[in-house]
Amino acid sequence: MGKRGLYRDYFLHADILIMTVVLIGLGALAVMESLTFYSLLFFVIGLAGFMFSEYLTHRFFFHLKAPSNPFFLKLLKRLHYDHHTDPHDLKLLFLPVWYSLPNLGAFALLFYLVSGSLGVTLAFAAGLVTMLLVYEWKHYVAHRPIQPKTKFWKWNKRMHLLHHFKNENYWYGVSTPLVDVIFGTLKDEKDVPTSETVKNLEKRGQTLSS
After folding, report:
1. DSSP for residue 150
2. Per residue in 18-31, pLDDT tens?
3. CB count, 10 Å around CB of 75?
4. What pLDDT does residue 34 have?
5. Mapping DSSP to helix (H, G, I), strand (E, B) and coil, where does residue 100 land?
6. What distance in Å separates the CA atoms of residue 56 and residue 88, rounded to the nearest whole number?
7. CA 165, CA 142: separation in Å to the nearest integer?
8. Cβ proximity of 19 and 100 under 8 Å
9. Are 95 and 136 in contact (CB under 8 A)?
10. 20 to 30 A from 204, CA-CA: which of 51, 66, 85, 108?
11. pLDDT at position 205, please?
12. Phi/psi of residue 66, nearest 5 degrees
């Protein structure tokens, strides 16, 4: 596939298009509400909020021990388990909009209930959605034949591939390695053993309990 096709697969994907429209809508509403210095501040807070949410969700929800409830198991398989089984399957690369939109909406609603300000909430929500799209792009690049230009982003791509092919218990951050540093899950690959369950998350609980 040529470079144009690779970019088309990302930018014309339904989930990406929908979240891009949401971002444009949030930006338009924020402008109508009037932009201030606090708008920029809470936009940045939204960016950071997503990075921490991304890490915590990835580590503690997407990597849960396989549940016995069939519906919950099916949910986790679609959201993450199957992605580990077949990391390069395009259909499994993106968070489905039915998952991401309600979650970010709930996060923004909670922020509004605490702040009481529609203007800063719109800026915060725009930050969340912006970083979601950054996350989706970096995740896409990690799994597709796209070579980042800088040493840092090449390294960042490698860290995510280590999560998929070396050990699923480290290197959780996709949009940034910063949160891995904070929580101690950014390791030198030489110090980490190869996991037997890196491509089969459903067996993790069985392996750990045996």
Report:
1. S
2. 999 999 999 999 98
3. 14
4. 81
5. helix
6. 23
7. 12
8. yes
9. yes
10. 51
11. 67
12. -55, 120
The C-alpha atoms of residue 100 and residue 19 are separated, in whole angstroms, by 9
Neighbours of 65 (CB within 10 A): 14
pLDDT in tens, 7-61: 899 999 999 999 999 999 999 999 898 888 889 999 999 999 999 999 999 999 9
Average pLDDT over residues 106-115: 96
Q: Enter the pTM of the model.
A: 0.92
Residue-wise pLDDT for 116-166, tens only, equals: 999 999 999 999 999 999 999 999 999 999 999 999 999 999 999 999 999
Kindly tell me the burial class for residue 178, based on how many C-beta atoms sit within 10 Å of its own C-beta (0-12, 13-18, 19 or more). middle
Residue 3: per-residue pLDDT: 72
Distance CA 77, CA 84 (A): 9
DSSP codes of every residue in 29-89: HHHHH---HHHHHHHHHHHHHHHHHHHHHHHHTTTPPPPSSHHHHHHHIIIIIHHHHSTT-
Exposed / middle / buried, residue 19 (Cβ in 10 Å: 0-12, 13-18, 19+): buried
* 80-83 LR contacts (CB < 8 Å, sep 24+): 80/201, 81/201, 81/202
Residue whose structure tokens are 């998350």: 201
What is the per-residue DSSP string for 152-186?
Answer: HHHHHHHHHHHHHHT-TTS---SS-SHHHHHHT--
Amino acid at 68: S
